[in-house]
Automatic annotation (TrEMBL):
Annotated catalysed reactions: tRNA(Trp) + L-tryptophan + ATP = L-tryptophyl-tRNA(Trp) + AMP + diphosphate + H(+)
SUPFAM superfamilies from the UniProt entry: Nucleotidylyl transferase (SSF52374)
Protein origin, superkingdom: Bacteria
Protein name: Tryptophan--tRNA ligase
Gene name tied to this protein: trpS
Length: 332
């Protein structure tokens, strides 16, 4: 079975719909025919300041959401990044073969550091994509399911694997991104020119998996739509309506064509109302399952402990091979 790794940051109390539709939904489907590793990336989270108690709580919440959404810990390794020290260790090695200019060209770093002010951005934030490359390369990963915003980090990962192999001999598998076009970029409900993101301008543009269903329903009902009144799928000219159709299709399992036909002659308001109901039906049972997992933190921590053991078995072998290739004297 091909190997798969992906990760998500524990930097909010809840995943948002972009996280779920762009990534986690595919993780759940792909664990059937892949040997999968799913990682809550707490080392990445601290590239910007985090409150310790909140970080700990959000790490458990992230794991609980992944389980509630269908990640099966008997099939896949579900673990916390800091539980597997090889991530930080391989990241150091990769830092040493990454060009300063190369890292400077990462657009997510540029965006985030601009927001914080260049002098306040941490060196950790600068080297964030190199740590991400380490996450992936440690598992000799074949595919990495992510949203569109991670494409550049995947390119860097491929470059670093190729560079290491050229310098030191074949050691690291070169991974491919798995970016499902339809849902690769879920848009903000209030500003359908921007991706849905936790740093959104207005909270009304962002729908969280864990938010109170009626509140979320209201956000769908007040989503910004486009001029005209016809419900058609045209992402370029009608990004607002098209985004709602994409979300509806992904949550209801119906095709966009089917939805367009079903809403023929109806208005934007009808689509929004229907989507709000679809979301409530989807989210309510998941929220209940998340609560159950959070009610039993010992059981949750046990699952994460077992995931880390599975992950370490693979990660330590890769790191040992890397250390040997670069000429580190083995400890006796
Ligand atoms: P993060 O935590 O920001 O997001 C998790 C996943 O959600 C996807 N995503 C979206 N997809 C579609 N539309 C959106 N609006 C949207 N917003 C977010 C992201 O693309 C991502 O797949 N750097 C990563 C975490 C990471 C990682 C890794 C991923 C660390 N190591 C190794 C893959 C492999 C990140 O910040 O994701």
């Amino acid at each position: 079975r091909p190997r798969l790794l992906s990760g998500i940051q524990p930097t909010a109390d809840s995943f948002h719909l972009g996280n779920y539709l762009g990534a986690v939904r595919h993780w759940v489907a792909m664990q059937e025919d892949h040997e999968a590793f799913y990682c809550v990336v707490d080392l990445h989270a601290i590239t910007v300041a985090q409150d310790p108690a909140v970080l700990r709580e959000r790490t458990r919440r992230a794991a609980a959401q992944l389980l509630a959404l269908g990640i099966d810990p008997s099939r896949s390794a579900l673990f916390v990044q800091s539980h597997v020290p090889e991530h930080a260790q391989l990241a150091w090695v990769l830092n040493c073969i990454t060009g300063f200019g190369e890292a400077s060209r990462m657009t997510q770093f540029k965006d985030k550091s601009l927001k914080q002010g260049a002098d306040r951005a941490s060196v950790g934030l600068f080297t964030y994509p190199v740590l991400q490359a380490a996450d992936i390369l440690l598992y000799q990963t074949d595919v990495v399911p992510v949203g569109e915003d991670q494409r550049q980090h995947l390119e860097l990962t491929r470059d670093l694997a190729g560079r290491f192999n050229t310098s030191f001999g074949p050691t690291l598998r070169v991974p491919a991104p798995h970016i499902v076009k339809d849902t690769a970029k879920i848009l903000d409900l209030q500003d359908p020119t921007a991706k849905m993101s936790k740093s959104a301008q207005s909270p009304a543009g962002l729908v969280e998996l864990m938010e109170e269903p009626n509140r979320a329903a209201k956000k769908f009902r007040s989503a910004v739509t486009d001029t005209g009144r016809e419900i058609v799928f045209d992402p370029e000219h009608k990004p607002g309506v098209s985004n709602l159709l994409t979300i509806h299709a992904a949550l209801s399992g119906r095709s966009v064509d089917d939805l367009v036909a079903a809403f023929d002659g109806k208005g934007y308001g009808d689509l929004k109302k229907d989507l709000a109901a679809v979301f409530v039906e989807f989210a309510s049972p998941i929220q209940e399952r998340v609560r159950q997992y959070l009610d039993d933190p010992a059981q949750l921590d046990k699952i994460l402990g077992e995931g880390a053991v599975k992950a370490r078995a693979v990660a330590s072998a890769t790191l040992a091979a890397v250390y040997d290739r670069i000429g580190f004297l083995p400890p006796r």
